[in-house]
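Holo model, fe (ii) ion. Inputs:
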Amino acid sequence: MEPFVTQPYLLSIRPATEMQVVWIQRSPAAGTVEYGSSRALGRVTAAVCYELTGLRGPASEAGYAPEPEENPPLRLWQCIASIGGLKPGERVYYRCRSGQTMTQVYHFHTAPLPGEPFRFGLVSDLQATAPCEHTVRCIGRRKPDFLLYSGDCTFHSWRADQWFDLQAPWQDEQSRRRAFFPCMQQTGGAQLMQFCPTFLCPGNHEVDDLRVGTDPAFAVRDEQWSWSIYMQLFRPLYPEGDAGLHGKRWYSVDYGDMHITSLHIARWARWEACQAPGWRLTDPIAPGSPQRQWLEQDLAGAGTKFKWVIQHWHLLNKGTDTQVNLCQPVADGLGRVAYPEDLGAGLQALYEARGVNAVSYGHSHVYERYYHRGVHYIEAAYLGGCCREANAPLHPSGLKPVVEDNSRQSFLMVQRTRGGLFAQGSYAGETLRLFDAYQIADEDGKGIPPI
Ligand SMILES: [Fe+2]
Ligand SMILES: [Fe+2]
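Output:
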């Protein structure tokens, strides 16, 4: 059987000078990466091999049983090879070897020097939503320099079939294609995770066991709150490796003249949002929290012209299904929630003060964008099914979206060209159709209001 479970994927927190080449394989066979400045390659580096823990295979030949523990652990291994000492903008060709089997030759380039152009695509919330593979292929055909992934890779993180094509008879053709890695590594004219780094942040579905969001008795035990599968699969982004409740799941990178800050903001619920006496396990972004302190320092220290934040949870959105991150239940038995006085504006004020150009997120599975005091708030995650009600009420602040379009599945590409940052939203149909084009920031890095 083919030893590779995924093709190589690229991750880095220093994308101008180093890249980690990562893949998943069926055995602990030694892995190496050959690489060089041309297809002749010429250099070799050994990969470090890790056994993955927490993933599960199906209970029977018929497929998965509902609860995680009813399904056996699935043993898979991860190889990570580090290519360092690179120069900004350098092109690198590479292929991976596992035992006696090699991949084809792929290539990537490092982040360019400030001032140079680049192009990136926004992705999130694939979760095998039909037909997510087509939307992702449209992004890949634009040959992005990197991808921003705003969380919710799968529905159940422990289910190996939601990450991989396991080549098992019970895994139907569509679910094979829509599993995270097959979708994010498809070819057919697309260049995706094999060719460019992906910067992810965790969503609410990245927790190892979703019962923390549905079963209060289960959720009260701190040890049930773990993000180990996500953190293993994207290990180079989280070098501290603490998958527990208080682990660090935030980081930042510079790509050309843009600073990218990736946060872990999701509703960490022990109960429904409206259920007294309170559902918040911990507020991971509250003033004074470790993540907030880090964020304040990170944004203050960013010396780049442009700044971009990715997080899973909204700051501005319509609908009641996805109440803002900081809401609390009202103990009146009517199932109401109350929003804090600032409606999350403390975080918004920080973004405004530090010149953040855009905050992109997912979770509602919509295409919707806002502009408020110099900052663009963007969700470009409409893959064919919204997670909100029809006639959704406005955000409690009363702010209205500049554009909202959930008529067809779509995607957003952003370009840093001479003149600033520009965004283009296109429908992901058989023929691409641009439906939303706007400027995010000017050449000085200042936010451009919508016309
Ligand atoms: Fe979500
Ligand atoms: Fe989602």
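The two ends are 56 Å apart (CA to CA). The domain at 116-441 is CATH 3.60.21.10 (Purple Acid Phosphatase; chain A, domain 2).
Archived with the compound record.
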